[in-house]
Design brief:
about 250 residues; 7-stranded mixed beta sheet; 10 helices; alpha/beta; Rossmann fold
Length: about 250
């Protein structure tokens, strides 16, 4: 199991490294929810100290936070060296695989954020508990992630055509947050976000463009892609949708 996870993690890292230079040009959904996270931050009374962005990638969320809180310099942590190199040179950056919990130097933080990261981790429940434990009293952890209800069009088309679904199996909220007390979760909400593409080829290319194409399934053959294109639900314009369900949770340490 450890060997399989290591191979998987290296594949994920390779794909994100390859997408680093072009990531910002294609990460519309990540940007949308980064801005939503910032809108929540405005209403929180966050203590002084180091603010951390976990799984920061190219710095999209960290940059959005700094736009709103101009005096803050966000620490960025990611396992992709090429992603971190896209961040501002003057910012603190830590190259670290978050599957190994947090670097020892990270502790007693007033704020940790994570946007579109936890679904890539081997054990999200364990990692979230570790992150939460490194908060100071009255500190906040804010995470956004796709839920298991994402991609209904893709799953339905695969079922109807008897083609293996090759997307990620996103986490169940009740599983990854089951060890938190209800009073520690101060906000939870799900959002629907629809992307539209001329065809499924552009849809799958968009996933590759942000480095999110890692799959534990076999690569699709040409005839399978053609079949998916034929049976995928079409809009009036003959275009196709991909629907995400994104959950944002805000946790506060007592």
């Amino acid at each position: 199991m450890i060997m399989k996870n290591n191979i998987w993690n290296e594949t994920v890292k390779k794909n994100f490294n390859n997408a680093a230079e072009n990531y910002l040009g294609y990460s519309n959904i990540q940007k949308y929810f980064a801005e939503k996270i910032v809108s929540f931050l405005k209403d929180l009374k966050i203590q002084k100290g180091e603010w951390i962005d976990l799984g920061s990638g190219t710095g999209l969320l960290a940059d959005e936070i700094e736009k709103e809180f101009s005096r803050k310099k966000i620490t960025r942590i990611d396992f992709s060296k090429k992603m971190l190199l896209q961040n501002k040179e003057s910012r603190k950056k830590i190259l670290w695989d978050l599957n190994n919990c947090l670097p020892p130097s990270i502790r007693n933080c007033p704020l940790m954020t994570s946007n579109f990261c936890i679904h890539w981790l081997d054990d999200p429940e364990k990692i979230l508990k570790d992150w939460f434990s490194k908060l100071r009293s009255e500190g906040y952890l804010i995470v956004s992630y796709p839920t298991i209800n994402s991609f209904p069009e893709w799953k339905k088309t695969c079922k109807e055509t008897n083609i293996e679904y090759s997307g990620l199996n996103f986490p169940l909220s009740r599983d990854i947050f089951k060890s938190f007390d209800c009073n520690e979760i101060i906000f939870s909400n799900k959002y629907s976000y629809i992307e539209n593409f001329p065809d499924i080829y552009k849809l799958f290319r968009s996933i590759v463009n942000v480095g999110a194409q890692s799959s534990k399934c076999k690569r699709k053959k040409v005839h399978e892609l053609k079949k998916l294109q034929k049976f995928w639900p079409k809009k009036e314009t003959n275009s196709v949708n991909l629907t995400w369900e994104i959950e944002i949770r805000i946790l506060k340490k007592s």
